[in-house]
Write a structure and sequence with these properties.
By secondary structure, the protein is an alpha/beta fold. The protein has three domains: 66 residues; 61 residues, no CATH class; 156 residues, Ribonuclease H-like superfamily/Ribonuclease H (Nucleotidyltransferase, domain 5, 2-Layer Sandwich), CATH 3.30.420. Helices cover 41% and strands 9% of the residues. The chain is built from 14 helices and five strands.
Length: 319
């Protein structure tokens, strides 16, 4: 598999300048630097310093070449070329919008022109650029990372569940989100030093309607009891099934089936992404309740307020 392109570094430009002073041919320079000769020719053409007023200062200077290259990359960012667009994006980031929500909204706003449309990845790159880091924009994203990095699924503790309850046996109507009443549930864990309290997230697959509730015990029976109390008042058609991962907090799932007649489905081992709706919602909730939140001091009305805000947020999947 070919390597991805990497820009010349300052050290490589210094070596290039030294070799060029020694009158070494471009082909030989490219060989020593491990680069294609076209890269060296292009570097000399683009970053050669010209000064009409002081001809003696003309030449290839590595520090100047580095500054010219960085300046070109900065100016290529669409948000830097359009200050008003940049200000609008930053304002919405601070209001809690995700990059995908901002990009999607720009496409449908009245009077929106093509030059004012963005890809969500463009916004994310800007957030982690030098300009975005100077404004601390990353702290407004759901995951609040210090730098951009790939996301990997967490590794839940493996547990033996019946083969008949595997997610691969779930009806196609549930997979296609054709019917209301099929839910996904998960448990958000917080720092142990703040006690056993946690937050349960329950998301309806078709409408993405979300319910959050605090659970003061990490044991499975306590969690299932709360889920039964939450969903039992609904009509049977609105509580047909729930999908879980294979965490220890869901080992009492048979009590759930017996208590309210809802079918339980389980993801494959180490595959929580198979219940993507609730995993995505957990990332949204984390912006309001980071891992160091002391849940025992949290008022119930604050939980309801955050839940209402999440349910009222724009969703691309719902148009």
């Amino acid at each position: 598999m070919p390597c991805s392109f990497v820009h010349l570094s300052l050290e490589e430009r210094r070596q290039l300048a030294r070799l060029r002073e020694q009158k070494i041919a471009v082909d030989e320079i490219a060989c020593r630097l491990g680069r294609h000769r076209s890269t060296i020719y292009r570097e000399l053409k683009r970053n050669f310093w010209h000064d009409a007023e002081v001809p003696q200062a003309e030449g290839y200077w590595p520090v100047t070449a580095q500054q010219l290259a960085v300046g070109r990359r900065r100016s290529s960012c669409k948000l830097l070329r359009h200050p008003q667009l940049c200000a609008a994006v930053v304002e919405r980031l601070k209001d809690g919008w995700s990059p995908e929500q901002i990009a999607g909204r720009l496409k449908v706003e009245p009077g929106s022109q093509s030059q004012h449309r963005l890809c969500h990845d463009t916004i994310t790159r800007f957030v982690y650029s030098a300009e975005g880091q100077s404004q601390e924009l990353a702290r407004h994203l759901p995951e609040r990372r210090r730098k951009r990095r790939p996301r990997f699924a967490r590794s839940p503790r493996s547990l033996v569940f019946p083969e008949a309850a595997r997610i691969h046996h779930r009806p196609e109507a549930v997979n296609a989100r054709e019917e209301f009443g099929h839910w996904e549930a998960d448990l958000m864990i917080f720092r142990k030093e703040h006690g056993p309290a946690n937050i349960a997230t329950v998301v309806e697959r078709k409408s993405r309607f979300t319910v959050l509730f605090r659970n003061n015990d990490r044991r499975s029976k306590s969690l299932m009891g709360r889920l039964i109390d939450l969903l039992s008042p609904l009509p049977q058609a609105a509580r047909q099934s729930l999908t879980f991962d294979r965490g220890l907090e869901f080992v009492s799932w048979r009590e759930l089936e017996a208590g309210m007649g809802a079918k339980a489905w389980f993801c494959d081992p180490q595959a929580p992404w198979q219940k993507g709706s609730v995993e995505n919602m957990n990332r949204r909730v984390r912006r309001y309740f980071p891992a160091d939140t002391v849940l025992l001091t949290l008022a119930d009305r604050s939980m309801r307020s955050i839940c209402d805000r999440l349910n009222g947020t724009l969703r691309k999947c719902l148009g």
